[in-house]
Amino acid sequence: MLMLMPLLLLLLQAGLAPAALAVIFLLHGLLLLVLPARVRTQMASLPGGPPFFRFIGLAEVAAAAGLTLPRWTGLLPWLTPLAAAGLLLIMLGATVLHLRRSAYLQALGDALVLAFVATVGYLTI
What we know:
Layout: H1 4-14, H2 17-34, H3 37-43, H4 49-73, H5 79-100, H6 104-123
């Protein structure tokens, strides 16, 4: 985990952090949108079930676009911090969900991504 810190700092300095986050959330959002049958049965016991997680997947794909497109096109640059704010809510919910299910390692990973999203959101204001 400590080896990731220099990489994150390098991404932040180079201005590539929003693009890196966009790739992460685009891939995860697409996974949630297609939900393989095995995963769908596992998620049936979670609050909201598969339809809620498809909504989260759609929100993550939209946020991925909001993190990158304004910077690349120069249009509507205020969308980037808003996309980061939306991802903050998603990651906070994921952290709470994993803590309530005693999945502490996943909660720690969610918290680290939450901190990364917060940093990117703050730096793009």
